[in-house]
Amino acid sequence: MDFETVKAAEFGASLRGIGLNLLVRDVPALCAMLETVFDMTSHQVTPDFAIVTYGDQVFQIHADGTYHSHPLLGLLPESGVRGAGVEIHLYDTDPDDAVQRGEAAGMHVLAAAADKPHGLREAYLMCLNGYAWVASRPL
Fold it and tell me: What pLDDT was estimated at residue 76?
């Protein structure tokens, strides 16, 4: 599928399994950060929407305003963090490299890269929207 040209109906009909959709204040800014820090690729980036790929995984980003009649919009905080308790694990990202890139991109390092007893080296970074991105690699 060509994510640069796929139409909304075709893209939506292609989705399977578990999906991830992040509601954010600034779609292009988050896309730029994800590309810089985690080597993701953003497609069809507009102020309202983007398709993002990480390896062979795909997810969506929507601006708050696109949910104008959605019941979830009323639950979002006007300011401060979002996504408390959600960890977005990126199992193919070097955590040490992600910390350096993340700090340079303005992310908050919640936990520096460290070896964990469950067999991974991980680092926790928070974007300006309050989502926790966990860069992970096997030990």
Answer: 64
Say which residue the tokens 């060509």 belong to: 2
Tokens (6 digits) for 115: 């070896």
Give dist(CA 38, CA 99) in Å, integer.
10
Q: Residue 104: what are its φ and ψ, rounded to 5°?
A: -65, -30
Give me the residues of the chain with pLDDT under 70, please.
68-81, 85
Q: How far is CA 105 from the centre of its chain?
A: 14
| 22/54 Cα distance (integer angstroms) | 14
Beta bridge partners of 122: 114, 136
Kindly list the structural domains of the chain, giving each domain's residue range(s) and its CATH number in brackets, ordered by start.
8-138 (3.10.180.10)
What does the alpha-carbon distance between residue 133 and residue 85 come to, in Å, rounded to a whole number?
Answer: 11
